[in-house]
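Pasting as-is:
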Amino acid sequence: MTSPLMELRDIKKHFTKKADFAGKIAQRFGAATGDETVFAVDGVNLTIAKGEVLGLVGESGCGKSTLGRIVAGIHQATSGDVSYGGLDLSDLTKSEQARVTLEIQMIFQDPFSSLNPRMRVEQIVGEAPLVHGLCTAQEQSDYVDQVLTQVGLDPMLKRRYPHQFSGGQRQRIGIARALAVKPKFLVCDESIAALDVSIQAQVINLFMELRDRLDLTYLFISHDLSVVQHISDRIAIMYLGRIVEVAPTEELFAAPNHPYTQALLSEVPRIDQRNREFGAIKGEIPSPLDPPSGCHFHPRCPFAQPICSEQSPPTREISKDWKSVCHFSQNMGIVA
């Protein structure tokens, strides 16, 4: 079996807020206050093959964006190992680190706030290639033209500032900035969520074209299951910092195994169910400051048993490339 391009092993990311001065004074007087720790990512294991599009789906606050930032090297994991191309990212030499940093790029959700409003497009797209020696100062203008053409933008617009573009055009500028350093792996964090539906379709098609043309690999993060279904080869479902199910896209949509996946897919609007009443998943999402014991989903799960609150469920293999993290995964099936 070919080794994966990206591999995450037991990744955890905790954000700790130290007690402020008032909190420390309160502690001295016996108040039950202290440091607060957010368990954003809690033991994630994932592999992504070269050329694959892995969709990462979950409710807001589940930790998927934090996980994407760890993959992109923006955040350092609290514990666990990240390997890329067979290399452990914590053991890279300076030259290897420089190469990997360029090969893994991230495209952010908000195309306006992620672009420097004081820089023209030619500077936004052309700065990094010049700094990293991918083009000379004399070649920079032509290089920017080529990259903008790749993403469907008119090079004649490169002297404009970000505020002079539409949302879809700004997202293309963000994609161009990432592509300018010739990456091999793209982390797309809700990269179409802020766009109109018609523009979303254009950007999705662009992602697919670039994947084929440039041999790219994607971690595609989204809360929109219909978008992820269209673009992904496999889908990972995340809940409160943990991956609860990973499966090929067709199999997952045909017969979801984990109760959380079943709940998510049962609420996807469908044209053949126009008269159906939809409802949110029962219960409130627990706080990542104090996640539930055992299975994190058990307070909201309709199939929960006492063992679910006592023990973390094992990862069970449903079939090839299909895993579910549930005590009763062998008994689960699609919910009509």
